[in-house]
Structure formats: structure tokens, C-alpha cells
Design a protein that fits this description.
This protein is α+β, with helices and mostly antiparallel strands. Among the domains are: 55 residues; 130 residues, Galactose-binding domain-like (Jelly Rolls), CATH 2.60.120.260. The chain is 60% helix and 8% strand. It is built from 29 helices and 9 strands. Strands 1, 2, 3, 4, 5, 6, 7, 8 and 9 form a 9-stranded antiparallel β-sheet that branches. A hairpin with a 2-residue loop joins strand 5 and strand 6. Helix 5 packs across helix 20. The longest helix has 31 residues. The radius of gyration is 31 Å and the shape is elongated. About 1% of the residues have low confidence.
């Protein structure tokens, strides 16, 4: 039997690139409605100021300059639309699979290991989501992976007797470290770490005996350090001249030391005392040197004065570092609606890939045989030299440094990302080794791997009982799914039973109470429905569905003012609440004969529109309105094109159900159009299909990137 031909390497990477880009484009689309966070807004404004005023203005918390220059370049080349810059970062994130693959191949000398390491990066929802944040991490990870690859390559070429190659790779790695430090100062420890590791490598970059011993040993680390300082020194000199004190890159580390450990000013609302420390630092304005000195002094003093609180904080941050943070986010931000596909991506490709990276990386580090020596070195000094020259001596300390700095300051999902390039090559090697032959590990290595994995999992489970909660949530959401199916069938009893079971699984569930309210409305028990709505709002006040149901009930009872206040929660979620209300409000009665679109009382009778503004709504490419009137013969629509003169006038096709009843090309201004219904039914679903335009395409100064149809303010059935 002939063996199957292996997939060509170029095709494997092409497919991997396509899959990685596809995931990132999906997340890019999911995240489009998300506004910029505080840190993102600061970077964005700094880049705009640089472009508009040709002036570099420090942020309130000083940061390195290179990411701001990157943003300014993206804005200059691709416009100032935030989604465009997010797309650039999505491409950068996708391209990161190549230096990661090169790093893994340099470590393991295995194509399979390289592909598997790249696959972990390609499939990571965490990295895809990070690319939509206008922060440094995406660019930093690309550069970090390339720097680590260059360092490993320099050492390997040296071992193979190379002359110029090791020196060139070391110098390029140094330039990379310099650039990384100017993106995030967290990269600075790579300078001494990389230099010491290169110094420990056996052999010499030049074979000639005329070179002195010191030059032979120091050539690589000197080239590495000199290249890095070539980029760092000018910025450090600029800071020294501007602030009359040595500030190597920024003051972030010193200020965060105090911000994250200000225990004497801690309160229930501010457990780390950040706000109090920040107020004092901001009061010093541009005295960056004074701020750095004060923050360092106060941070060290706070830790020394409150060792128990510091230890307690370290313990809490250690548990959070290993946590399944997407699971945590979904549980802690229950009022934020997330598309079901993104929920699965968060759990499987976010937390799942993190688990694979963490456990696979730890196992790979423990079982990794090293450079492949035929026998163990004899004697303490040879053994120590071999240990210092091992790849783990470069990558493991970097991973430990990221862990320790996260504990010292505070843990956020993005702060642990720099550990990914250190873990991925070992995880890829470990996974590839399962398929092939590998040396049986010693008992000591097995014990170490088991201890590290058990410690990480223990910290994870001490943070949150994930297994129990996952089982409970699965049970609850199956019951909620059954309740939704019962509501679709019109079976109020089955819906009520399923909702009650879901509530028994999770007594804090607002969704279960909303399902109970809908079941009660379907059964005609409005008193029970109101109780369930009130309970849902009490359980989770920001959850919009209970507010919308209450608004629909108030509208039905004639309380227009209170109904408008509740129905305004339409904009409190990224969920398509027009589509949800279309079905959920049906048990409260039939649609009206006339609808003021955008009047605040239209929800439940329309879908496919944007939120109301000024007494009207913009339609999308297809929008629908449901109306009812016995004996109605015509539909009368008040609408306007609302387009600048540069845009072509919209053409609208009008349907009643699935039957086209007319079309019209609109002129400027509000106008009233009338079409015959050509139907004898009482309930009519009027559909508007129209050509769209995007304001941003016509006016670069506009921030509106929506695809807009026409403005609609009233639709009415007339005899």
C-alpha cells in the first residue's frame, strides 16, 4: 500500500494563514460596535495630535513612542476610521504565525512542531480579539516572536561554525529588542537576558586563532547589546534633556508600582488605592522625573509597610494569571450580549487554546532534551555551561519575568500575552513528539512536569470552580433553549417548566426570569409576567430584555411616558433587539394601523432599522414594519433620502409580504408616498428594500460608517 503524500509545506502555511485571517476577520466584525477604551483613546488622540499638529505630546501616564508612530502611520495610509486600523492589526496578528513557526522550527528542527506552534497562534481567539484593541500587544507579539527566533538562530549558527551569520542574527535581534522597548518598556529585560545567554553559548563566531579570547566570547553579546542601545539611547537622551533626569524609556513601571500597591489608600471601591495615587501623580503634571522618584519611593514603602496585604494581593493575582479569563468575563459581564458564535469562540479558541499553550508549554519545557547532546556533560562547570546555553534558559526566565511582573502590578488578559511566544514552541514540540519517537523522560522530569501542571490547574480552580460552573451553565442553557423552542410553538406550560428548571440551576439568571415572563404573557397571566420582569430587573438591572417587555406592557396599558423610558433600552445591547421584540411582544396584541417610526413606541412592530434619532429612523438595506387594519387598501409612507448631493438618489422597492407593490426613486426632502396593498388580509408586513450609502465614503471627516438606506418617520394603512 502506497503512503499518502504529505501536504506541501507552502500549502499548509497558506491554509493556516487563511484560517487565522478568517478568525480575525470574524472577530473584527463582531467587535466593530465596540468603542475605544480609555487607554486606546489616549493612544488614538496622541497619534492624531502628532499628525495634525506635528507635535509629540506625552500621555498622562508616560509610554514609549513607537506604537503611537505606528498608529499615526496607519491613519496616514489607511484613513482615520478606527475599523481600518483594527483591520491592519488583524493582518499583523495573522502574520505573527510565521515568526512563531520559525521560532518553533529553530527550537525543535521539526516542521511538524513549527506547524503546530503556528496553529496555536492561528487558532487563538485571544490574539484575534487583541488585534481589535488599539494597544501595543499585537505589534509587540510579532516583534517578540521574531527577536526570540533570531536569538536562537544566532546560537545555532554559532554552534555549526558560522562566522558572519551568528553576528548578523545577534545584531538584528538587538535592533528588534530596541524597537520592542520603544513599543513597550516591558521588553527591556530581554537586553541583559539575551546578552548573558549569547555569552554562554559555546564556540566562537570567528574561527581564526588571531582573535583574542575575550573578543571571541564577547562578540555576539556585544553586537546584540550595541544594536539595541543604538535605538534606545537616543530616546533616553531625549528624556534626560526634557526632564533633567535619567528616564530610560518611560515612567510606567515606577508609577504602576505605586498605583497597584497603594495599600494605605485602599477602599472598597478602590482596593489597590490606584485613584488616590493617580491623583497625586497627575497633580505633578509634567514633572516626570519627580513622578518617577515619588512613585518608586512610595511603592517600595507601601510594600514594606503592608507585607500581609502585599502577599494577599500576590496570591489573588497568581490565581487570576492562570484563570480562564474569557469564561470569567462572560460570567462577570452578563449584561453584555455576545453572539453565540463568539461565545463558543471565546471558550474553545480562547480559553481552550490558553490551556493547550500552558499545559503543552510546561510539559515541553520539562521534557525538552536540549540541543541534542549525545551525553550529559561531566563535572559541575561543564554542566552549568550547558544549562546556561540551553534554549530554556532564554525562554523560561522570560516567561517567569512576565508572571512575576503581572503579580507585582496586576493581571489583565493582555498582560500575560508576552508569555505566548515562550510557550508555543515547546507546546508545538510536545504535540509533535506524541506523533513520533522521543526519548523516555526521567522520573524527575515527569515529576516536575506533573507538579507544574498541577500547580497551574490548582491556582486556576482556586480562582473559580470552573468544572462545576460549566456543568451548571450547560444544564441551564439547554433548559433555556428548550424554553425558547416551547415559546416558538406557543406552549406556555412547557416554556414555564423549562424556565423554572433553568432558574433552579442558576437563581441569578435574568434570562430564565425573562423566559418566565414571556411564558406568562403567552398564557395571558400579566400579573405573573410583571412579577417575573421585576425579578429579572432586580437580578440584573442592566439586562435590556426585561425592560423591553415591561415597556411593551406599559405601552399596551396606555402609559406612553413610562413605556418610552423602558423601550429606550433597545440601545443597551449589541443584540438585535428589534428582531427579538418582533416575536417576544406578539402575545400582547396585534400591531397598530399607523406607526410613528422613531417616536419611542415603535419597538416590536419593526425590524431592520437603526436606532431612532430626532423622530425618525434610518433603514438598512431591508427593513420591515408590521401593521394591521381591516379593510385597508393602501399603505402611506413618510420618508426622505437624507443623502448629500454627491450621493445618488435612493431607489426603494416596496413589498407587502412577498409581493412587490411598487418602487420609487426619491428626490430631496421629506415626502409622502402611497402604494396599493393588493391584499385582502388584515395584517400586513411592509418591506422596504433600498440602495444604501455610507456617510464616511462621501465625507472623510464623518465618523459614520453605517450602511444607510432612507429616513422613515411614519407608516400608515389607509382605506
Amino acid at each position: 500500500m502506497s503512503r499518502r503524500r504529505a501536504l506541501p509545506l507552502w500549502l499548509a502555511y497558506a491554509l493556516l494563514f487563511a484560517a487565522a485571517l478568517g478568525l480575525r476577520l470574524a472577530v473584527w466584525r463582531w467587535r466593530e460596535p465596540y468603542p475605544l477604551s480609555g487607554d486606546e483613546s489616549e493612544y488614538w488622540q496622541q497619534a492624531l495630535t502628532l499628525l495634525q499638529q506635528k507635535q509629540y505630546v506625552e500621555l498622562r501616564l508616560m509610554r514609549p513612542p513607537l506604537y503611537t508612530l505606528f498608529l499615526a502611520g496607519c491613519i496616514y495610509l489607511f484613513d482615520s476610521l478606527i475599523q481600518n486600523v483594527r483591520l491592519v492589526q488583524a493582518v499583523v496578528s495573522t502574520l505573527t504565525i510565521f515568526p512563531v513557526a520559525a521560532l518553533a522550527h529553530e527550537l525543535a528542527r521539526s516542521r511538524r512542531a513549527a506547524l503546530l506552534a503556528a496553529l496555536l497562534f492561528a487558532a487563538s481567539y485571544t490574539l484575534a480579539a487583541t488585534a481589535t484593541e488599539l494597544l501595543t500587544e499585537t505589534v509587540f507579539l510579532f516583534g517578540l516572536s521574531a527577536v526570540l527566533w533570531l536569538l536562537l538562530r544566532s546560537a545555532r549558527l554559532l554552534r555549526e561554525g558560522g562566522q558572519r551569520g551568528p553576528l548578523v542574527c545577534a545584531a538584528l535581534a538587538g535592533l528588534g529588542v530596541g524597537l520592542l522597548a520603544l513599543v513597550r518598556s516591558v521588553a527591556l529585560p530581554l537586553l541583559p537576558l539575551g546578552a548573558v545567554w549569547l555569552l554562554a553559548q559555546p564556540g566562537a563566531p570567528f574561527a581564526s586563532p588571531r582573535w583574542r579570547w575575550l573578543a571571541r566570547r564577547a562578540a555576539l553579546p556585544l553586537a546584540f547589546a550595541a544594536a539595541a542601545l543604538l535605538l534606545i539611547a537616543p530616546w533616553a537622551a531625549r528624556n534626560t534633556l526634557a526632564y533633567h533626569a535619567l528616564i530610560l524609556i518611560d515612567t510606567t513601571g515606577a508609577e504602576n508600582l505605586w498605583l497597584d500597591n497603594n495599600f494605605s489608600a485602599a477602599s472598597a471601591d478602590d482596593p489597590l488605592g490606584r485613584d488616590a495615587a493617580k491623583a497625586q501623580l497627575y497633580a505633578m503634571e509634567e514633572d516626570r522625573a519627580g513622578r518617577q522618584q515619588l512613585a518608586t519611593r512610595r511603592g517600595v514603602a507601601e510594600i514594606a509597610a503592608h507585607p500581609a496585604m502585599f502577599a494577599q494581593k500576590l496570591w489573588g493575582e497568581a490565581k487570576k494569571f492562570f484563570a480562564l479569563q474569557h469564561f470569567d468575563e462572560l460570567r462577570e459581564k452578563r449584561a453584555i450580549w455576545v453572539p453565540p458564535a463568539e461565545v463558543w469562540a471565546k471558550l474553545l479558541l480562547g480559553d481552550g487554546v490558553w490551556l493547550a499553550l500552558l499545559l503543552g508549554g510546561l510539559a515541553g519545557m520539562c521534557f525538552w532534551p536540549g540541543w541534542g547532546q549525545a551525553r550529559r556533560p561531566r563535572g559541575l562547570l561543564p554542566w552549568l555551561g550547558a544549562a546556561l546555553a540551553d534554549q530554556r534558559t532564554l525562554l523560561a526566565p522570560w516567561a517567569a519575568y512576565i508572571l512575576l511582573t503581572s503579580l507585582l502590578f496586576h493581571v489583565e488578559l493582555r498582560y500575560r500575552l508576552p508569555i505566548y511566544p515562550a510557550l508555543a514552541p515547546f507546546a508545538g514540540w510536545a504535540a509533535a513528539a506524541l506523533h513520533g519517537r522521543w526519548a523516555r523522560p526521567t522520573r524527575g522530569r515527569v515529576a516536575l512536569a506533573a507538579a507544574l501542571a498541577a500547580s497551574a490547574l490548582a491556582l486556576m480552580l482556586l480562582h473559580r470552580p470552573y468544572l462545576a460552573e460549566a456543568w451548571m451553565l450547560a444544564d441551564k442553557h439547554i433548559a433555556l433553549w428548550e424554553a425558547d423552542r416551547a415559546l416558538e410553538r406557543g406552549d406556555s406550560r412547557a416554556a414555564s417548566r423549562s424556565a423554572a428548571y433553568a432558574l433552579a440551576m442558576d437563581d441569578t439568571s435574568a434570562l430564565a426570569r425573562v423566559a418566565q415572563a414571556r411564558a406568562a404573557l403567552l398564557a395571558g397571566d400579566r400579573v405573573a409576567a410583571e412579577r417575573a420582569m421585576d425579578a429579572a430587573i432586580a437580578a440584573l438591572g442592566a439586562h435590556p430584555q426585561a425592560h423591553l417587555l415591561r415597556g411593551a406592557l406599559l405601552r399596551h396599558q396606555g402609559d406612553a411616558q413610562q413605556a418610552r423610558a423602558e423601550l429606550a433600552y433597545e440601545t443597551a445591547s449589541l443584540q438585535d433587539l428589534q428582531a427579538w421584540s418582533w416575536d417576544a411582544f406578539a402575545p400582547l396584541g396585534g400591531p397598530p394601523a399607523a406607526l410613528d417610526v422613531g417616536g419611542g413606541l415603535d419597538l416590536g412592530y419593526l425590524r431592520g432599522f437603526y436606532p431612532a434619532q430626532g423622530g425618525y429612523r434610518w433603514s438598512t438595506a431591508q427593513a420591515q414594519v408590521r401593521l394591521a387594519r381591516p379593510g385597508a387598501a393602501r399603505v402611506q409612507i413618510d420618508l426622505a433620502p437624507g443623502r448629500p448631493s454627491a450621493a445618488p438618489p435612493p431607489t426603494i422597492f416596496v413589498y407587502n409580504g412577498g409581493t412587490e407593490i411598487g418602487q420609487i426613486t426619491l428626490r430631496d426632502g421629506w415626502q409622502q408616498v402611497v402604494f396599493s396593498l393588493e391584499s385582502t388580509t388584515d395584517v400586513h408586513t411592509i418591506t422596504l428594500r433600498t440602495t444604501t450609502f455610507r456617510p464616511r465614503d462621501l465625507d472623510p471627516a464623518s465618523g459614520d460608517s453605517r450602511q444607510l438606506g432612507v429616513m422613515v418617520r411614519r407608516i400608515e394603512l389607509v382605506p
